Amino acid sequence: MGMTASEKVDNMEEIALYALHVDDDPSLNPWTFRTWLYVYSLLTFHCLGLSCFSSVLATIYQFKPQGIVLSATFLCVISYVLAMVMDYIPKKGFIGRWFNPHPFNHKEHAAILIMSSTAAHSAMAAEVIAVQRLWYTKIPNAAVCIFLIFSSQVLGYGIAGLMRKIIVYPTKFFYPANLPIMSLLETLHRKKKGETKPQLKIFYWAFALIFVWEVVPEYMMPILTGVNIFCLAKRNSMVFTNIFGGANGNEGLGFLSLCFDFQYIGSSALYLPLKTQFNTLIGYILNLAVFLGIFYGNIWRARDFPFLSQLLFSPASNSSGYITFNQTAVLDANGRLDEGLLTAEGGAPYMAATFAAYVLTQNMAITATFTHLILYNWDDLHSAFSFMSFGSLKNIAKPSFWMFWKATEPTEEDISEMDPHYRLMLRYKDAPDWWYGLVFLVSGIVGLICIYEADSGMSWWAFIIAIFLASILILFTGAQAGLTGFSLPVQPIIQMIGAYLEPGNPLTNMYFTLFGYNTVGQGLLLLRDLKLGQYAKLSPRCTFTMQMVGTLVGSVLNYIITLTITQNQREILLSIEGTHIWSGAGLQSFNTQAITWGGLAKQMYSWGSTYQWVPLGLVIGFFAPLPAYFLHRLFPKLGLNHLNMSIICWHIGWLVTGINSAIISFFLVAFWSQHYLRRYKPEWFLKFNYVLCAGLDGGTQVVVFIMTFVFFGASGKAIPFPDYWGNNVEGNIDYCMVDPANG
Questions:
Q1: 408 to 334, 403, 553: CA distances (angstroms)
Q2: 8 partner at 20 to 30 Å CA-CA among 138, 326, 528, 679?
């Protein structure tokens, strides 16, 4: 007897078995000429060209006032449109055999998507190179830069690839962000069979309606980004601004605001599991209490600095006026901290108290992840440490251990316990472990050479420690992302450890962060794409190839674009204001963080200093999940095992920056999707929820991308909308009071 729809959606990890088709057509070939090349305009590239396009744009947006992230949904839609143009090419003769061998299939589409989305992530190494070119005298040569970018991008692939059997292949690691994009692929490529006509209709309607609607809140009527009756009722109170304002960046907490701009609500409200949303809500409520308590309790001199800010401030600042800390004035000619110059500047700088609280809770979240997964998911992770057992060490001496070219067949018991999606993948050759091991080894050696050739000041032993930390963090944060959809940012702990290992050198801290933090991010991208390939039934070797080629293309273009812009726009990038076309704000922020951690960690975070509790958050986080765990063991019916202290702790600092007016709307959409639809409309949920998500996300991304060039100045000239009550140009767009001390 089959399961009912309600039973199918009760367990989130099972949804991938019912929301997606569990079948495969091995005759579909992703290795076509048109996957790699495509005639567009006169001659351009399709897969490689889309990778070039996404890589170039991702790098350019690092130097723009407006930032856009090219989502997988956007790339999926644009690649499908380009493929449909190909239908007009003759299907017979020499041209037809190369460019139109058969109808465009979902495996070709998945391969293109993986390659282009890989290239669409701008390399963190490009930021390091840009900062070094702008603020430091020693600049690496072109070869070192390109090899540095490529090695830092693929190092995480090697580590994560060796962990794929643990945190990719099992059913429970389903990487929720893949469900909308996979639903879209199925909808686009099954329509000719008549199986997905209703889903396709939902997708087109959602895409079209949000495409038209987003012009209103994004351009014509920005007040719809944050409608708050408290801001409208009382426009002369900074207390109201701090609590209720949130439609502008760093304005306030946006409490009880309603947002009608889907760009800020985000598609994650539709696909993140209900447990993740629940823990996020708890963190949000605590975030409101903690931020307001710290600020109005004047902890860390909070009232002397802005409520929300990411800058450093001089100790001479007060509530009447904020003085930005002159970070370059405390460094010597070699870029190292000069304590005499620091004393002359008045001593160590201050942060906004809410930003300090954010760093503290991030540290708690990172270590809480370890404890939570060990307590609740040890059976899923313990095999990752099985190599340390005595039996495993004995196996190393056996010749069979080294014969990696001899594949071992899975037993019938192994097959019966496999994820049904993965079971269909057994007909394809896996990318062997030694491929990933070779990637790890080569990229590690190249990276080690590069840190010395680039005069980073980083020691070989620090490089090894950074890689070791990244390996541990990939395992735990990868498991967290696969189970909950929540990707934990680990940059603070990496920067902190790097600061104490090799203090006083901001440049060294940047390189330590590059190989420690960026490696984790790249590893998580590989894990997600390997799961996408599993859902799409794309052969593992094809997925591996697309990842590597996309990264190689992106590395070269990242460097070329970075070099061009830093040479031609140097003065603008170094200025505080920038222009409406170019801005160095992102690079300045990255450089500031490096100076804070790399140069001032001792003065700001050591015991007895102002922010001594910030690094202790790492210790507190280890113990944070224990009370709920022990209470769950005593009272299992209370459901306390659903509390994830890692997610809760991170969201206690959630509202530290950005547009905060969308939070209530985010939870309303999440409740409608993950509670109401799943519980009361399970058939509709399984059939349409993720297609709707893809349509809304794709339409939003496309129209925002277009408006960035047409209206917002990315093409050279901005076209502002006239000032009226729905577009408050002079102040905050939700009409809350502007902080007079910022003037």
A1: 55, 10, 34
A2: 528
Q: HEC profile for 15-37? A: HHHHCCCCCCCCCCCCCCHHHHC
Look at the block and give the residue holding tokens 């790399």.
Answer: 598
Amino acid at 177: A
300 close to 467: Cβ distance less than 8 angstroms:
no
Question: What sign does the dihedral 270-276-277-283 (CA atoms) show?
Answer: negative
Q: Which candidate, 556, 555, 476, 474, places its Cα nearest to that of 516?
A: 474
Give DSSP secondary structure letters for 138-187. Answer: ----HHHHHHHHHHHHHHHHHHHHHTHHHHTSSTT---TTHHHHHHHHHH
What is d(CA 624, CA 375) in angstroms, rounded to the nearest whole number? Answer: 12
Yes or no: say if 734 and 257 are a contact pair by the CB < 8 Å rule: yes
SS3 call for 227:
strand
Supply the DSSP symbol for 518.
I
Look at the block and give the residue holding tokens 């929720």: 176
Please state at what angle helix 142-162 crosses helix 460-484, rounded to 10 degrees. Answer: 50
Q: How far from 680 is each of 6, 10, 647, CA to CA, in Å?
A: 8, 11, 27
Lowest average pLDDT, out of 129-143, 492-506, 565-579, goes to: 565-579
In the predicted structure, residue 407 carries a pLDDT above the cut 50: no
Phi-psi region of 722 (alpha: psi -120 to 50; beta: other; left: phi over 0): beta
Is residue 317 within 8 A of residue 346, CB to CB? The reply is no
Least confident of 32-36, 502-506, 657-661: 32-36
Sign for the CA dihedral angle at 610, 340, 592, 488 comes to negative
Q: Report the candidate in 243, 265, 359, 346 with the shortest Cα–Cα distance to residue 310.
A: 359
**Per-residue pLDDT, 516:** 92
pLDDT digits (tens, 9 = 90+) for 528-543: 889 888 888 888 888 8
- CA dist 651 and 539 (Å) reads 37
Q: Is 540 helix (H, G, I), strand (E, B) or coil?
A: helix
What is the spatial distance between Cα 448 and Cα 514, in angstroms, rounded to a whole number?
12
pLDDT band at 29 (very low <50, low <70, confident <90, very high): low
The token pair that represents 520 in the structure block: 């984790």
Among 484, 482, 421, 479, smallest CA distance to 674 is for: 484
3 state SS of 245: coil
> If 0-12 CB within 10 Å is exposed, 13-18 middle and 19+ buried, where does residue 437 land?
middle
Q: How far are the Cα atoms of 199, 489, 530, 551 from residue 486, in angstroms, in the given order?
A: 27, 9, 17, 24
Residues 566 and 133: beta-carbon distance below 8 Å? yes
Check: CB of residue 110 under 8 Å from CB of residue 30: yes
Written in H, E and C, the secondary structure of 275-341 is: HHHHHHHHHHHHHHHHHHHHHHCCHHHHHHCCCCCCCEECCCCECCECCECCHHHHECCCCCECHHH
Report d(CA 615, CA 617) in Å as an integer: 5
Give the integer Cα–Cα distance in Å for 310 and 308: 7
Question: The tokens of 336 are what?
Answer: 């190292």
Angle at 626 between CA 625 and CA 632, to 5 degrees: 95
What is the rounded distance in angstroms from the CA atom of residue 159 to the CA atom of residue 511? 19
Nearest residue to 102 (alpha-carbon basis) of 41, 187, 30, 190: 30
Q: Which of 211, 206, 169 is nearest to 184 (CA)?
A: 206
Work out the pLDDT band at 401, boundaries 50, 70, 90. very low
Q: What is the pLDDT of residue 669?
A: 94
Enter the DSSP assignment of 351.
Answer: E
Q: Which amino acid is at 332?
A: D
Residue 114: band (very low, low, confident or very high) from pLDDT cuts 50, 70, 90: confident
Contact 695, 210 (CB under 8 A): yes
pLDDT at 266 over 90: no
How many Å apart are CA 479 and CA 474, to the nearest integer?
A: 8
End-to-end CA distance of the chain: 70
